[in-house]
């Protein structure tokens, strides 16, 4: 028969912690639903727009470089723009910086562990250095306090500067693609009935907007419930979630021995994230970058530099398995540091 002491020492029911756990579970569920809507919405919008473009005899090359490229980065754009407009600037900038870190350290780390990735000379000579340049430009524009003592902010002028860089990158991409006789083969477009295409665009846009709002609101609520800053949530959970399309694309490409797609997908996404996504977001509304530290910028830049040295010098145009393991371990260490803070 239980004694008075044993009853007093038994775990007591605490309604506060039960409610807290329920709220965390609910927000996590809303986070997943919001992300699913964003990804599905991006696919529907892309397929519908590509179908209509094909009906107007737009080439596969142009569709691939514009509509499809936009579609793969739509989750990051939707989340960052929604966050900026809602006043959650740390999630907006953290999403991009965190996605770029995740893309190299995790996506390329995992794909290289599955299968060593051959890197083309043009990627090593141009695209990866351009990724490093994009990261440095973001540091120079976003870390104002480091250079002139002012509050860290991406102003409207900074956003326009990033968009100018994006136009240069887009011009370069078109030039390279047109000089490649196989460029037309890359994107297959299924032509659908006009009303179906229009419906897909409308539903896709609605899913993007609604899912993005749901995803950001759930992220903010989850950060507050966990006692974490919005910047840490943006750099980790939000960044990983919006990078899922790139992860799936690179994994499939690696399994099919298509190294150029696996690496090009990541490198192109990183450039797109900084120049286009932050460019559009900052042009529409200035973004204060108070929660992003020099360490976060340094890890983003360092990951790109490490990819360059691994590809150019150590691997001799190949990203090897042990290098993939090292990239993944660096991400684990960086994430552990963030969570300890």
UniProtKB/TrEMBL annotation:
The chain crosses the membrane at residues 20-46, 58-81, 101-119, 126-147, 159-177, 198-216, 232-255, 262-284, 290-310, 322-339. One of its GO terms (molecular function) is calcium channel activity. One of its GO terms (cellular component) is plasma membrane. It is found in: Membrane. The keyword NADP does not apply. Its main location: membrane. Keywords: Membrane, Transmembrane, Transmembrane helix. It comes from the Bacteria. GO terms for biological process: intracellular calcium ion homeostasis. Residues 28-174, 197-339 form the Sodium/calcium exchanger membrane region domain. InterPro entries: K/Na/Ca-exchanger, NaCa_Exmemb, NCX_ion-bd_dom_sf. It is a multi-pass membrane protein. NCBIfam families: calcium/sodium antiporter. This is Cation:H+ antiporter. It comes from Porphyromonas loveana.
